[in-house]
Amino acid sequence: MSTRGGVATFVREMRETPIWTEWDIRHVATHRDGGVATKFAAYFGSLFVYTYRLVVERPSIVHIHLSSYGSFPRKYLFELMARAVRTPVVLHVHGSDFSVFYDRSPRLLRAAIRDALGGAAVVVALGESWATALRDITPGARITVVSNAVRPARRVRQHRDGPVRVLFLGEVGERKGTFTLLAAWQRMMVTAAGAVDARLVVAGDGAVDRARKMVADLGIEPSAEITGWLPPQQIPDLMQQSHILVLPSHREGQPMAILEAMARGLCVVTCPVGGIPDLIDEQCGLMVPPGAVEALAVALGSAVRDSELRERLGTAALRRVRAEFDIDVVWRRFDRIYREVAR
């Protein structure tokens, strides 16, 4: 499963846990990366498979991953079909803009969103702030909080020779703060005046050409590389080679990239938006206001120059992952939800 995005990453992680076999989970992928024709074929193919499994195999539960905008009508249809045959639905809400999506939707679509939330046996929110927003939309919905999860990995070594490697991992564009990052990187390198040896790698799809042009315009090519999207198999090695993960998002859900970095003991530099404060705070990461180029440059400079700071924050982040976001903790929460719903 090489589809991009946080939902695909979550599914890949859950496949490796006992819940997958204990509940005999059959995953139906409704999305595939590619052009319009590829995406249409993936969706209508998944609709056929889903209908067969729902009507013929009669599952005990349907677990639907739901997001905003184009994802909503596709997944709402799946929920309505499950409810029509009296199969309980666990509705797992993703997407950083869901409450904005609701507020900007026309009246009929808002009614459908309320029905989707209210008609599910359980609605899973990724954090407390999301749960509050969903309760505001549908006060009667049964909402529970289960964070994203990750498996702790081999710890990175912060004290090693060579340049300090800083990684951005995610969609390249305004929402994830990529252009703020590039401006801050240029500011940091100019301020350092050659006193730091650091390399920035920006990995992800989206506005890649615009980012590469900005790198050239700012004159930071020697220290900044825009790779474009990389397949999931390459991400563990890329993280293992890095010291710092930076994700200065303006709007965000609960990014898997941050959890994966914390699970390796990387130092994380990010912004307190969306579900990020549910994952990380000042005790285990560096937080800056979204869009604040100067503050981000200062935070990056501090992390790049100070290996002891990186070590301390990375240790605290890894400790938090093991206590709260380990996949072995999270799959057991879903197991309890499934048992309650299936009774």
What features would you describe in this structure?
α3 (36-57) runs parallel beside α4. Helices cover 49% and strands 13% of the residues. The protein contains 14 helices and ten strands. By secondary structure, the protein is an alpha/beta fold.
Features:
343 residues, alpha/beta, Rossmann fold, 2 domains, 6-stranded parallel sheet, 4-stranded parallel sheet, 14 helices
Order of helices and strands: HHHEHEHHEHEEHEHEHEHEEHHH
Fraction of residues in H or I helices: 40-55%
Give, in spatial order, the strands making up the sheet with the most strands. 7-6-5-8-9-10
The name of the CATH topology of the largest domain is: Rossmann fold
Q: Please identify which CATH superfamily of the largest domain we are dealing with.
A: Glycogen Phosphorylase B
Tally the structural domains.
2
Radius of gyration: 21 Å
Task: Kindly estimate the percentage of residues that lie in beta strands according to DSSP.
Answer: 5-15%
**CATH-level-2 architecture of the largest domain:** 3-Layer(aba) Sandwich
Shape verdict: globular
**Largest beta-sheet characterization:** 6 strands, parallel
